[in-house]
Amino acid sequence: MNNPETFKCPCAICHKRPATRYCDYVIDCWHPQIFLRDRMRCVKENEPSYETCDVPMCEECAKNIDREIDFCPYHFELYQKAKEIPEKWKKEQARVKRQINTELLNGSD
Q: Is the pTM of this model over 0.85?
């Protein structure tokens, strides 16, 4: 949990309230495999080979996406966009995912 005493600056977003959180969005990574399904595994395997945004934010301006993971409004918008692919590609995405799952179930490489 973030300790508010470690923040001695105002929120970079609203400039009104004291910052109590940092943006946790990964902005740079020096490890070839950054997209892991398990966050703790990602942290363990990538540490200290990544850098986060770290913009100081107040609780009201921070966009909480999971326990102890907060994004600034800018990176939250990118995160929302990254989760959704264009509609015209969804059919192909579903087809490939089915193919991959079938291969995994059959033990094919």
A: no
